[in-house]
Amino acid sequence: MNIHKKRWAISLLVFSLSAVFIGSFYPLKSIMASEKMEPISDFEAVVSSDDENGYSAYLERHTRAARPDRVIRIEGESYVNATGGEFEIADHPYELDGTAVLTPEEGMISWSVPIEEAGLYNVRVHYYPIEGKSSAIERQLEINGEVPFKGAEILLFDRIWGNKMDEIQQDDRNNDLRPRQVEKPSWQHGTLTDREGYYDEPFSFYFESGEQEISLTALREPMAIDYIELYQQSGQKTYEQVSSEYASAGLTPVKDQYMLIQAEDAAYKSSPTLAPISDRSSPTVIPYDVSKIRINSIGGTNWKLPGQWIEWEIEVPEDGLYQIALKEKQDQLRGIYATRSLMIDGEYPFQEMKRIRFKFHRDWQMNVLGGEEPYLFHLTKGKHQIRMTVSLGEIAPLLRTIESSVLELNEMYRKILMITSNTPDPYRDYQLEKRIPDMIEVFEEQAETISNVADYLEKVTGEKSDKVAILYAMVYQLKEMVQRPETVAQRLDSFKINVGGLGTWILTVREQPLSLDYMVVSSPDVKLPRAEATFFEEIKHEIGAYIASYTEDYDSIGNIAEGNRSLDVWVTTGRDQAQVLKALIDDTFTPETDISVNLRLVPSNILLPATLADEGPDIAMQIGEDLPVNYAMRGAAADLTQFEDYEDVADRFRESGLTPYMYDEGVYALPEQQTFPMLFYRKDILKELELEPPKTWQDIYNMISVLQKHNMEFYLPLESSNASLVPNATFSMLLYQNGGEFYQDNGMRSTLDSDISMDAFKKWTQFYTSYKFPLQADFPNRFRTGEMPIGIADYTTYNMLTVMAPEIKGLWDFTIVPGSKLADGSVNHEVASHTTGVMMLNNADDKESAWEFMKWWTNKDVQISYGREMEGLMGEAARYPTANTEALEELPWPVKDYKNLESQWKWVQGIPQVPGGYFTGRHLDNAFRKVVNANQNPREAFSDYILYINDEIEIKRKEFNLPYE
To answer: For the whole model, what pTM was predicted?
Structure first.
């Protein structure tokens, strides 16, 4: 037995020593990780022949057109027409040596262009990003009054961002603080390219000879235009050609040169989302600390969208040829690679730098560009700019193909749905192959197309993965349905799921995340740093991190030192939101007021027990709208009307935002966020059905029959459970639009027993009993597939659709909800809103300081800064629905979409919170279920539950010694 133990111990020792020995050779493995890829010809995108307005079809129509080798410049100030905005000609604006035209965030401006030789031209604009709402500038281009192709309707012009401070700042616990991103505008050239990244080369536009007209219509943000140029993009030489030129010019590699550039020290970025980040996955990152937060890398999942770029500045000590190595980690895209392009001083050094692949690997890698035979770059002595841009590379035609397939398969799905409905009879043969003559042909074509994409992807990546499996699953089902068309109806659900999977595949593959720790520009003979940690380094790192989890306070955010005046503020949302908030507090609130803030990130359910134990905060943020009045009834929330300047602060919001926080002539919170319903609709499908967005509920009734005839549905919001206690949005709409209220007699009784309420309840339930609206539906996904081409949903659905449904971009819109026609002929569009708020606890020691904080937090500038920072950090999906009316206008909404929001916001009403009011939403839903599920009479079912609502209100008012009669 002892001999056996000794052998086991010896084996373990040998294994450990081997691991250390192997670990010492990590540099060799890492450096060789970026081998040159075998050249594979690009996949030729297969798109629908119906897409006549696409860029590919546009190029096909002008395939024989010349490409004149000349530059035509149009000065910005020489425009011939400008409408819809305040355009201004300015001399030497923003340090420009000349004159430019300043264009606002809306309106159209046109120039006359003399074309001597007809042909295809690239177009670039010399522009300056005027201060606006911190989002990318968007313009639509027209030639002679027409948008030439789909893609030219939204053209992006980047803003330039950088770190606010040159050095990384730290809090008083020695943790690095994420650098705030600020705009660093300058004059730059913006080449008109595909914003989706589907085309590597700049757009080519066809111009006839003679006088032509170019127009730019502002969609978002202002910009100054110096000039517009029509030109020809020059072709790129290969590395082999450039290498020969090096030899001919007598250029040789430099000796003993080594420059390490920390990636987080990037000079400029295209987006505020590209702020430096902290990575604690390895002890080899620079800088590193086992327990403290260190800002030591850049990119990650923030640097993933086509067109996003990061730029570094380097000082080169001598002329010569250098190699470039990157310490990188691509641990997100398994089964595929991330792609970047690299420019030096605004030019691609050679063709291979347009598509640099980074394969999946869990650990950090030292990636020498070029692999075993590194590419050499000619750099002259002095300052240079190195820019890396997210590119789709060889993946772009695959995405275009799958996107086209998704649109075509969704269209076929809708055709099938029109015949079978979404609940087909499993025992019926619908003879779909006869009733939809092109069904089999479409399935065959798409099976072959998607199979070709999967085969190509497998070939270029050299492996099978989940990315390929999704495609093959779709191919298998399509082939099965071709062979057995009688089973198509039975497979409809799985078919929809697989098509949805293709849409998710597009989103996943389109995103190309990559993390960088540092960049090394050196002579080829220099030994590079080790990227991966050794065995013992990993053990030390893991043990240290484990111990730190007990010794470090990860709940407190930023500085925690208390001054003469201090506040405890609790926030219940994510760490990202808390860090942005703390940065704003430390930047503006504390310096301006000399009040320190201890900000803590806590679970949402801890506030009540902490308050009862007298351990609660001075201020609770981002809380539900039901809490302040509940706390006020118990004397736990402070009345804000006691402060002299309350009325001035209240003017920042619409009355509907304050309504839920009013109780017994007091106001017990201020609204932070306010959301309300809007009408979303698919423009393409409504046009196909010859329908218009409804203006009234009668219009909805009229369109229901048309939709249901095609087995499509209208969506109305309905919670799957009544646990949220929030009155239903549809019922609230019908109630308020017809002059109804939820409560009467200062909240002592429910008003839902009125004739108006009964009529609203009956209309609401009839949508589900008479018109068979679905009780459960994933509206964003069904909207995406076209099953529900129209519906009413919270306006934040806009953010979700913008991010998760790129394949229908431009095919949908949102507008004011349908209204109820009144006796005088006017239409009432009122809706109910929901809010989150910031509340002062009554046990706050320094209420004046707490009030100062609440005023600061809800003011226009801070709400704008917070909203922009959050969108900059997390993207469009995190657009902040502020309750401050002036702040919402300054957030980066497209002008047209903001006007739609503003039109609806004027009609918004708040739902009062009263003692026992939590029964209202709950029993409203209970009555609804009785009618819909048990087929009860609406008036009788609702009347029964209104008794329970009134009883609970009376009980609660008695409990808190409030008048109840």
So the answer is: 0.80
